[in-house]
Design brief:
The protein has helices at about 30-40, 70-80, 95-100, 110-115, 120-130, 145-150, 180-185, 245-260, 295-300, 305-310, 350, 385-395; strands spanning about 1-5, 20-25, 45-50, 60-65, 85, 140, 160, 170-175, 195, 200-210, 215-220, 225-230, 230-235, 265-275, 280-285, 325-330, 355-360, 370-380. Strands 10, 11, 12, 13, 14, 15, 16, 17 and 18 form a 9-stranded antiparallel beta sheet that branches. A 5-stranded mixed beta sheet has the order 1-4-3-2-5, sandwiched between helices. A 4-stranded antiparallel beta sheet has the order 6-9-7-8. Helices cover about 30% and strands about 25% of the residues. The chain has about 400 residues and is an alpha+beta fold. The radius of gyration is 21 Å and the shape is globular. Bound molecules: adenosine-5'-diphosphate and magnesium ion. Magnesium ion binds near residues 270 and 283.
């Protein structure tokens, strides 16, 4: 069940020092970029992931090829590592709990559980709101027809979201009337859902925060996010639209949330800024986030290095940003620009000729529509220059340009 790349796990003097092993639940691109950061600092990484040849397993020093819930798999991971982390939000909390008996897990099963359940998350945000002044969208839990009948009129039009497993706009349906709500609940097979009032968004931002085991927290600049078809399309950092007041409020709210959770690790919190300038907290991801990929090329400490530090219980690093940056997600779609049937590699040479372009590809063998294959970050002394280069990249890759032009 394992692909042996290393003879035996080397035992360092102290299990959290460089040279030691870190254990990662999940083998996607976030695990891969974590492994890059860990290896750069001298750590070795063991990844538990069922899929052969996944992005992280291609480069990690050891791959435990097992289901996330496999006791044997978890036992094998523990043979290698004593400090554990996760790269995806839907990792079974029970597995993190089991790892927790063997060594520190950052973030803990309890923290991840809150982020895995939209209703628990909203209750938690609402509780934090008394301190932060930032609340989630008005909402109502729906698990039966009775709940639909009890929905207040002012929650419509709204968005019905499954409480569990939703991501990239999946598991959510927009509804205008109670009849549509009822039909949407049928479509979602009566899974427990939350109905959220549709809010007039001006733009969306995310705030990355990290907290060490000593309770020390750090916060990154505000990133502004543009989505397409429910998937993150572009991130601009720092956000060109956010006012100093809103930025401060969002960063303070994020710091409050992470400390109130007693969280250790990297956490990303998404906020909406409404047309009247008010701030609404949307959701959180208990791991590095797509909107934080710009930190690899534009910040003193990337979100992945921060995750390594938090996981190994080391001091956190500076979140200072060297240069403005914009990030463009690369989806599998662009491989099918020239042909609908045969994937064709994009002209990376033309992309790399653009000033400040940093290409990151995740090693996924098969390009598919909507699949995240990589990203490009553009850094420049002025955000507008980076934006200009991103537009040029869109033209080269046949991607419809962002609406800011
Ligand atoms: P996901 O887990 O798929 O990212 P989100 O809750 O972030 O789910 O919703 C996806 C997108 O839908 C958001 O980025 C935002 O553009 C839009 N959206 C979500 N909730 C609302 C809302 N209450 N009002 C208006 N737009 C919303
Ligand atoms: Mg989201």
């Amino acid at each position: 069940m394992t692909i042996e790349k290393q003879v035996l796990p080397r035992k360092p003097l102290l299990p959290n020092q460089p040279g030691a092993w870190l254990g990662m639940m999940g083998g996607g691109q976030l695990g891969r970029m974590f492994t890059h950061a860990a290896n750069a600092m001298g750590y070795q990484v063991a990844v538990l992931e069922p899929e052969q040849g996944c992005p992280a397993a291609q480069i990690a020093q050891h791959h435990v090829s097992a289901a996330y819930t496999s006791k044997d798999g978890l036992r094998e991971l523990v043979k290698y590592a004593r400090h554990f982390t996760t790269e995806f939000e839907n990792v079974p909390a029970e597995s993190l709990k089991l790892l927790g008996y063997e060594g520190p897990v950052a973030p803990s099963a309890a923290c991840v559980s809150v982020a895995q359940d939209r209703l628990a998350e909203k209750h938690f945000f609402t509780r934090c709101g008394t301190n932060t002044g930032v609340y989630p969208a008005p909402h109502w839990g729906i698990s039966s027809a009775k709940d639909i009948a009890a929905v207040k009129d002012e929650l419509l039009p709204g968005i019905l979201k499954t409480v569990r497993m939703g991501y990239d706009g999946k598991g959510q349906i927009r509804v205008n009337t109670r009849e549509e709500l009822s039909a949407a609940f049928d479509t979602l097979k009566h899974q427990t859902c939350v109905l959220e009032k549709m809010l007039p968004l001006a733009y969306e931002v995310s705030v990355l925060v990290a907290r060490g085991v000593d309770g020390e927290s750090v916060v990154y600049p505000i990133a502004e996010n543009m989505h397409r078809d429910g998937i993150l399309f572009v991130t601009l950092a720092p956000s060109p639209n956010v006012t100093a007041d809103v930025a401060k409020k969002a960063q303070e709210a994020a710091l409050h949330i992470i400390s109130e959770l007693g969280y250790v690790g990297v956490l990303c919190i998404e906020f909406f800024v409404l047309k009247d300038g008010s701030l609404v907290v949307n959701e959180m991801a208990p791991r590095p986030h797509n909107s934080g990929h710009y930190t690899i090329d534009a910040c003193v400490t990337s979100q992945f290095e921060q995750q390594v530090r938090a996981t190994a219980q080391l001091p956190l690093g500076s979140t200072a940003q060297h240069m403005p940056a914009v990030m463009l997600n690369i989806l599998g779609d662009i491989w099918f620009r020239l042909s609908d049937t045969e994937p064709v590699d994009p002209p990376w040479d033309q992309i790399l000729a653009l000033p400040g372009a940093k290409l990151h590809l995740y090693g996924k063998a098969e390009a598919r529509h909507g699949r995240k294959m990589g990203h490009i970050t553009f850094v420049a002394p002025e955000l507008a220059q980076a934006q200009k280069h991103l537009v040029e990249a869109c033209r080269i890759l046949g991607i419809q340009e962002p609406e800011w032009v």
